[in-house]
Amino acid sequence: MRKYGLIIIAGICLAVLVFGHLHWKNISQAAGVEAREAAAKVKEKEKEEREALIESLKPEKNKQQPLIDYLHYKSLTQERVIVSLLGSNGTSGTGASKTSNSWAGRLEKSLRADRDDLERLSFINHGNEGYSTEDLVKGKKIEAVIQDDPDLIIFENSLINNHYQSISLEQTQKDIESIMTKLQKELPKASILILSPNPVANGNMENSLGLNYVDYIQASEQVIKTNKWTYLNSKEEIEKKLSKKNMRLADTLTNDNIHPNDQGHYIWFEVLQEYFKLKK
Question: Quick one: CA dihedral 98, 101, 105, 109, positive or negative?
Answer without folding.
Answer: positive
